[in-house]
Amino acid sequence: MTTEHHRETSPQENRAKERRAGSQELVQKLVAERTEMLSLYCQLAGLETYGNGKNSRAKHSQELLQKFCQVLVDYIAAGHFSLYERVVNGTERRQQISDLAEKLYPRIAKSTEVALDFNDKYDCSDNCEISASLSDDLSRLGEELAARIELEDKLIRHLH
User: Where is the segment annotated Disordered (predicted)?
Assistant: First the structure.
């Protein structure tokens, strides 16, 4: 017969578990926002014509573009104001993760600028003309998002 020993966890162990759970929650939110954003990006990039004016295709394109812009900003915010903020504010205690995040952050910040510029240009409700440069702008944004996702995944792997 074996006797299991149950020891109480220390306050430090409890705080560490809470921090890990908080990190997991932040990562899950980031990945959920990213997944929704990528789905909308693919839908938007797959449109044959964006159209302008009041026809139903143009209206659909504008609505999709507005939804994409909203989700894009939510995704960017999920990363910046949760995951990266912990590192920038010094609340990440694991030095290896802090060092990696500091190394990756400038490149991630560049992708944030591109995403926000895209949003500024195209988030104009349903009463705007879709620019002829949307396809090129989507392509540039897609390249930046791909680079960002690769860096985020590297950071997420280290968080686990």
Answer: 1-22
Which of helix, strand or coil describes residue 123?
A: coil
Whole-structure pTM value: 0.78
Number of compact structural domains in the chain: 1
In a domain, 86, yes or no: yes
Q: Are 101 and 92 in contact (CB under 8 A)?
A: yes
- Is 2 domain-assigned? no
Distance CA(25)–CA(111), nearest Å, equals: 23
CA–CA gap between residue 63 and residue 73 (Å, rounded)? 16
The CA distance from 61 to 139, in Å, is 17
1: in domain: no
Short-list 44, 30, 43, CA closest to 108:
30
- Contacts (Cβ under 8 Å, ≥6 apart) of 120: none
User: Which residues are bridge partners to 124 per DSSP?
Assistant: 126
